[in-house]
Write a sequence for this structure.
């Protein structure tokens, strides 16, 4: 199930035991989202020992091209505990699954990670723009099928 996803071995193992996180991740919802197959890692000055892992997907269900990013926190960068921050609509928050607004209040406090949950192609890092174009083109191709 995870072979084509850019998850670390430890994160894959973690997700196998946390179905609620797996269902909430945009990158695993292939009916609506197309993965750019890229991982962006960073560290917030608010919690410098926690690794922030970003997964960007193209939302092919929206008329205007929009890319969405989920954030997974690798607590202490130990690969033993992960927390997913995403938009919670039909799921309840828990210890490991939290709403994106909590990410901004915690890791983004002080102005870090502004406007990074929903992105337009021009907002993406330069290194991902070619992949973004490929994802948009692929979405058009499969729409015609």
């Amino acid at each position: 199930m995870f072979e084509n996803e850019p998850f670390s071995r430890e994160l894959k193992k973690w997700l196998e035991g946390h179905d609620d996180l797996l269902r909430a991740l945009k990158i695993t919802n292939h009916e609506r989202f197309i993965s750019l197959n890229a991982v962006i890692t960073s560290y917030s000055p608010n919690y410098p020992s926690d690794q922030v892992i970003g997964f960007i997907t193209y939302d092919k269900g929206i008329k205007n091209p929009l890319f969405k990013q989920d954030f997974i926190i690798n607590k202490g960068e130990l690969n033993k505990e992960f927390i997913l921050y995403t938009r919670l609509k039909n799921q309840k928050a828990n210890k490991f699954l939290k709403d994106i607004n909590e990410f901004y209040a915690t890791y983004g406090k002080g102005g870090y990670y502004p406007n990074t949950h929903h992105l337009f192609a021009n907002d993406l890092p330069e290194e991902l723009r070619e992949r973004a174009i490929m994802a948009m083109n692929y979405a058009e191709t499969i729409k015609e099928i």
User: Anything to note?
Assistant: The mean pLDDT is 89. The first strand starts at residue 33 and ends at 43. The chain has one domain: 9-144.
